[in-house]
């Protein structure tokens, strides 16, 4: 059930209950009191046409109290089948990248996508689909309350920040987003297509970026003690 503070955000209880079914009903900040409540709405969601073609809604994977939140683009086939984000080849590589700096999805990381249903043929989500789903993601950020946010790939980064530059131009750079330290990194799928570890290549750059993230996280954890 929603609490009194949430009820005040809407004209009535019925409007709150209609959120998953009508993209015209906004989702104000602090609509949800916890992630379980948000996930319940997500699993009922029909705010865009992706609800007609998905197998299931893919909400999240990892620690709901994590210090690092990773935001991807959208579920692929494996994710659509299993109901978890980043579990295919890209996800396996992502887990390896995190493990290389002693970060665990179970302990340190919370993973979600800007769009929670698989687009047909794994196409890029449309602006309409992103806008329908984005409020859920912003609520996840607030509820998880991570120290660091990583955008994997251009779709997540541009869809959330409005940045126009190519991912190759802005990856690895720290910025402030939603009051938190954030960084854009290459999507693991891009690294699978560019396997060279040569200096200056995407995999080499990712190694520099993830070490940067690890160092920043250690410093922030020390300051938060």
Automatic annotation (TrEMBL):
<dbReference type="GO" id="GO:0046872">
    <property type="term" value="F:metal ion binding"/>
</dbReference>
<feature type="domain" description="Uracil-DNA glycosylase-like">
    <location>
        <begin position="59"/>
        <end position="211"/>
    </location>
</feature>
<keyword id="KW-0378">Hydrolase</keyword>
<keyword id="KW-0004">4Fe-4S</keyword>
<dbReference type="GO" id="GO:0051539">
    <property type="term" value="F:4 iron, 4 sulfur cluster binding"/>
</dbReference>
<keyword id="KW-0411">Iron-sulfur</keyword>
<dbReference type="InterPro" id="IPR005273">
    <property type="entry name" value="Ura-DNA_glyco_family4"/>
</dbReference>
<dbReference type="InterPro" id="IPR036895">
    <property type="entry name" value="Uracil-DNA_glycosylase-like_sf"/>
</dbReference>
<dbReference type="InterPro" id="IPR005122">
    <property type="entry name" value="Uracil-DNA_glycosylase-like"/>
</dbReference>
<dbReference type="InterPro" id="IPR051536">
    <property type="entry name" value="UDG_Type-4/5"/>
</dbReference>
<dbReference type="Pfam" id="PF03167">
    <property type="entry name" value="UDG"/>
</dbReference>
<keyword id="KW-0479">Metal-binding</keyword>
<dbReference type="GO" id="GO:0004844">
    <property type="term" value="F:uracil DNA N-glycosylase activity"/>
</dbReference>
<keyword id="KW-0234">DNA repair</keyword>
<dbReference type="GO" id="GO:0006281">
    <property type="term" value="P:DNA repair"/>
</dbReference>
<keyword id="KW-0408">Iron</keyword>
<comment type="similarity">
    <text>Belongs to the uracil-DNA glycosylase (UDG) superfamily. Type 4 (UDGa) family.</text>
</comment>
<keyword id="KW-0227">DNA damage</keyword>
<protein>
    <recommendedName>
        <fullName>Type-4 uracil-DNA glycosylase</fullName>
        <ecNumber>3.2.2.27</ecNumber>
    </recommendedName>
</protein>
């Amino acid at each position: 059930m929603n609490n009194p503070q949430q009820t005040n955000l809407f004209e009535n209880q019925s409007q709150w209950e209609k959120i998953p079914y009508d993209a015209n009903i906004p989702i104000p900040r602090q609509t949800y009191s916890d992630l379980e409540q948000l996930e319940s709405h997500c699993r009922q969601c029909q705010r865009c046409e992706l609800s007609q073609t998905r197998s299931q809604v893919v909400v999240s994977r990892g620690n709901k109290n994590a210090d690092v939140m990773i935001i991807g683009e959208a579920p692929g086939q494996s994710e659509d089948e299993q109901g978890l984000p980043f579990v295919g080849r890209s996800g396996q590589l992502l887990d390896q990248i995190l493990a290389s700096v002693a970060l665990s999805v179970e302990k340190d990381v919370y993973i979600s996508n800007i769009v929670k249903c698989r687009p047909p043929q794994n196409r890029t989500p449309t602006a309409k689909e992103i806008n329908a789903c984005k409020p859920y993601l912003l609520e996840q950020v607030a509820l998880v309350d991570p120290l660091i946010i990583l955008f994997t790939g251009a779709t997540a980064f541009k869809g959330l920040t409005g940045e126009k530059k190519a991912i190759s131009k802005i990856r690895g750079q720290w910025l402030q987003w939603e009051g938190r330290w954030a960084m854009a990194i290459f999507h693991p799928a891009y690294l699978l297509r560019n396997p060279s570890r040569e200096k200056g290549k995407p995999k080499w750059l990712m190694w520099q970026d993830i070490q940067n993230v690890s160092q920043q996280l250690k410093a922030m954890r020390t300051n938060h003690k």
